[in-house]
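$ fold --in a.seq
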Amino acid sequence: MSTRHTLSVLVENKPGVLTRVAALFARRAFNIHSLAVGETEDPRISRMTVVVDAAELPIEQVTKQLNKLVNVLKIVELDPAAAVERQLLLVKVSANDSSRANVLQIVDLFRAHVVDVVPDAVTVEATGSDAKVEAFLTALEPYGIREIVQSGAVAITRGARSLSERVAAELN
């Protein structure tokens, strides 16, 4: 049985690291559902948030193989109950004079933000969990979604403990 796994991977901030990590998933025939990469508070370290659908055993094998890559510093599989996960969505929705008020009401209900308005459309920014983003899109669908741009998920563990602080201390 396949389940969704969110991996937080700390890597050295060097060229080619993303390619090597993605290639490892490709070699193992995993489809990456979501991938987001960015610098951490330490510019020498980047954090990759990788969301994949996989069975338990293969994800463990991939984690072990990732640990063997030279520039990989730390890998943690995030427990959904112990982490905050969000994604960013930009969506362009048809909105003429008769439908604009209804679209704006949905935007307000989901605590999203209008970032652009033209006579026949609005562009909206929303952030939230995968479920919230899906529900938002479902609510907007009847009005005509013209375009969607979506980021990969980013996730961080709840509480004061910092994954990257420990790794940065080990690099010093």
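$ fold --in b.seq
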Amino acid sequence: MTETLDTTKTPDTAETPETTAPQPKTLSKTVGGRTITMTPEQAEAFGRELDALKESVIADLGERDATYIRRMIKAQRGLEIGGRALLFGGIIPPFWLAGTAMLGLSKIIDNMEIGHNVMHGQYDWMGDPAISSRGFEWDTACPAEQWRHSHNYMHHTYTNIVGMDRDVGYGILRMSADQKWKPYFLGNPLWAFLLMVLFQYGVALHELESEKIASREITLRDKREILDGIWRKTKQQTLKDYVAFPLLAGPFAPWVLAGNMTANLMRNVWAYMIIFCGHFPEDVQEFSIEETKAETRGQWYFRQVLGSANLTGGKLFHILSGNLSFQIEHHLFPDIPAFRHAEIAPKVRDICERYGVPYNTGPLPRQFATVVRKIVKLAMPWN
């Protein structure tokens, strides 16, 4: 049995969980000790305002957006070339440090600001095959085709729905009290640390649904096509970073190998922190399948806001986060060029405030501290 990925659906067109209720219902969530309620009528108005904001941005897309992404690609390539060149002289410590830092930054920009955003279709309107969501491949172990399904479709359609969104725990961690506790989760902090340092491989294995294999719901044979894709991409990345470039360096091979490993570690830790701080800080909400039955577009928006958190920082910080520091705006409008999120964030926040919807934002250290606290807390059976 093989599995064919359907990457044609987006949150705008994807099917929502099977409905049993003929009419939408009032939604209520308790956030920070306060109950947030949204009636179907309020959700409809909420959705109309956010739809209008999205349409205004789409109508304004043009040369400014094209110039931005092309500059990011040029900067990323310059950092990679310069970093790899400096690593060839890595026996001199300043060269090694500079080369490693430049290569790490190039991998972060490639994954966060270019790859992730391009594969969301944010620049498909340009008609440039080099940055087409369908054809783009990034510098990480996860095959782009599998990412487009597990992330663009599954995660962005079923955001924070326990049992539907596999980003809730990545099949490895307990990140919600609604996930049934088992002794394995006593290792939650350790599994989280390992996921952080090996993040590109954790993401690569995401589509494998390893927890279903462990529970014998499916077998490895059922995932043969997925496994083949993971193996091809992982082998390609391993040969490039850990064999080809070190060999090209000749006697400097050990320094190049160490630099490449460190650059990948930089990217893994940074991506993990940004992504987890966008999804799991204190007061970010999870949802049940029952809560999201007969969900309207406005209620989908409501879930995206409550299921996300932003990070505060400067322009460079936002670029290095792939503008996922505006996770709320990204979850609302995943196909809008991400650098536009800084511009529309005040408008989104204003809409949320007028409808009484909490807008979760804060600095990286504070948000990450609450993530770590949640990981440790949910390791215990009484939580």
